[in-house]
Design goal:
binds nicotinamide-adenine-dinucleotide, three-stranded antiparallel sheet, six-stranded parallel sheet, alpha/beta, 47% helix, single chain, 11 strands, binds (2S)-2-hydroxybutanedioic acid
């Protein structure tokens, strides 16, 4: 019986030691991946906000990111200290206040900008223009000066104006590259996929529907006729579904009742877009995302369509593809509002000193 006790002790000790060794190896492999392609330097501007914090968490959790810089006008030292304890290899650094903005952008390859005020019930996205236009112009001006080659992903609303603002700022500094500037509309695609999956009893992860146009009300145009897998709806249900996708942001604003707009789903969508971009920059082929970009696909100088992403940002604009008569009507009905929002953004920068 002494022998059996000894044997049991030996087996238990060996098991514990083996488990600890496996855990240590797993932690090391997570922490010291040295693939040259997985060394992206990403900056988040507005990192302390409702979107900024969960977005930074998702980026910190990614093996694609080696350096994560967090900039905001408040709370970034705390957010950075908190995130920096997570056992992934991305090095997190916090920067606070305009004097630290240039340093936060040094060597950035991708800059994500969720800085700006969110809507309250009763407001349109355009009602945010007065505050957010200045915030985005100042932040992108710093990008044009300190990381002119970086991919710029704008989340701040109104996206239909903040992208033209960003382009004009880059033009002013003579560093404009339309293949590097993206209005992040991924949340519209995420929502469309989810709502269609709910209605058809599908796994949302397997649904993919392009959403084109812009990112406000009727400028958001889901192209349900191009959904994969193919789905069909009676016209009244199609119209209700389209309306729900167009007003999904307002659905969240109302539900949050004054406490802001979508943050968690936006962080997910923003991370999805950044990871797609990083994958494509790393040489992965066939990466496609919709985004609101400089475009020649319609009469609007900016328009969201599926884009083939590559090492240098937009590799190819894949255009709208074949639309149903209903979708064509939605596009033509969106044009006036889109053009006006774009012009408002462009005029804002032209009028600035
Ligand atoms: P929030 O108020 O929670 O956070 C905004 C953050 O920006 C705050 O931490 C604030 O300190 C910071 N900020 C303000 N001015 C700044 C400046 N000059 N420099 C750096 N940081 C600054 O708001 P939120 O819920 O995170 O939303 C942010 C923006 O994203 C809003 O404009 C909102 O409308 C927009 N949004 C866009 C989408 C989309 O699909 N593109 C989805 C959701 C929200
Ligand atoms: C969204 O679509 O959730 C965002 O644009 C935020 C908003 O104001 O609706």
């Amino acid at each position: 019986s002494v022998f059996i006790i000894f044997l049991a002790l030996f087996v238990t000790c060996s098991f514990v030691m083996f488990s600890r060794l496996s855990l240590t190896l797993a932690a090391l492999s997570r922490g010291v991946s040295t693939s040259a392609q997985n060394n992206a330097r990403v900056a988040v501007l507005g990192a302390s906000g409702g979107i900024g914090q969960p977005l930074s968490l998702l980026l910190k959790n990614s093996p694609l990111v080696s350096n994560l810089t967090l900039y905001d006008i408040a709370h970034t030292p705390g957010v950075a200290a908190d995130l920096s304890h997570i056992e992934t290899r991305a090095k997190v650094t916090g920067f606070i206040g305009p004097e630290q903005l240039p340093e936060s952008l040094k060597d950035a390859e991708v800059v994500v900008i969720p800085a700006g005020v969110p809507r309250k019930p009763g407001m349109t996205r355009d009602d945010l223009f007065n505050t957010n236009a200045t915030i985005v112009a100042n932040l992108t001006e710093a990008c044009a000066k300190h990381c002119p080659e970086a991919m710029i992903c704008i989340i701040a609303n109104p996206v239909n104006s903040t992208i033209p603002i960003t382009s004009e700022v880059f033009k002013k500094h003579d560093v404009f590259n339309p293949n590097h500037i993206f209005g992040v509309t991924t949340l519209d695609i995420v929502r469309a996929n989810t709502f269609i999956a709910e209605l058809k009893g599908l796994d949302p992860a397997r649904v993919n529907v392009p959403v084109i146009g812009g990112h406000a009300g009727k400028t958001i145009i889901p192209v349900i006729s191009q959904c994969t897998p193919k789905v069909e709806f009676p016209q009244d249900q199609l119209e209700a579904l389209t309306g729900r996708i167009q007003e999904a942001g307002t659905e969240v604003v109302k539900a949050k009742a004054g406490a802001g707009s979508a943050t968690l789903s936006m962080a997910y969508a923003g991370a999805r877009f950044v990871f797609s971009l990083l994958d494509a920059m790393n040489g992965k082929e066939g990466v496609i995302e919709c985004a609101f970009v400089r475009s020649e696909e319609t009469a609007c100088p900016y328009f969201s369509t599926p884009l083939l992403l590559g090492k240098n940002g937009i590799e190819k604009n894949l255009g709208m593809g074949k639309l149903s008569a209903f979708e064509e009507k939605l596009v033509s009905e969106a044009m006036d509002e889109l053009k006006a929002s774009i012009k408002k953004g462009e005029d804002f920068v032209k009028g600035r000193k």
